[in-house]
């Protein structure tokens, strides 16, 4: 540090410099939505940092992210050398999180970042260390009964039975955690089994999961939805497996 440099922040000033929220965004082949979702995240009225992990995209998303990173040096953009899966991308993003709280944000447009304030409020008020956004709890949502909804219901039911909780939406994208808690979890997930694994491990820590309603606009497979019915099978196995092992 030279003589003209200000001293590093300490005390209350130093705590204010830490962002409130780390937005963890795994990205895979989302060239049609990545710019818009980033604008929506930036517009959310919460102090935040944004961490994007490109999971080996092949459709031009990587080039868009490289351009966005040049335009906005505050963006944290990480490139995986190959497609490993959502869980691996989230775990990589967690390594770089500096905020007090973390939220997982998909790179499509199904979820609304304007819900961030409601999602972080219970943590800030000390009512929970883990908050999930629930799609069924928001009456405004058009959430049709299809194979995805059935899979979501079954995973939620199984989580409630195995881990003694009262969730309405276990596989929701919007999962929010105190960062120190999330970083302390020995996560091993590679793909969509991130959701059941993190649910299992926070419940086995004795953490309450509080739910709040969130807005949701479902997209179809034709629009780029990547989760499949087989992921529900993997999710169910993950819930069962971690009930009996660490």
DSSP strand count: 7
Q: How does the helix and strand content classify structurally?
A: alpha/beta
Strand residues, percent: 5-15%
Overall spatial form: globular
Order of helices and strands: HEHEHEHEHEHEHHEH
- CATH topology-level name: Spore Coat Polysaccharide Biosynthesis Protein SpsA, Chain A
Distance between the termini: 45 Å
What count of structural domains? 1
Determine the CATH superfamily: Spore Coat Polysaccharide Biosynthesis Protein SpsA, Chain A
Biggest sheet descriptor: 7 strands, mixed
Low-confidence stretches: 1-15
Task: Name the helicity range.
Answer: 25-40%
CATH architecture: Alpha-Beta Complex
- How are the strands ordered across the major sheet? 3-2-1-4-6-5-7
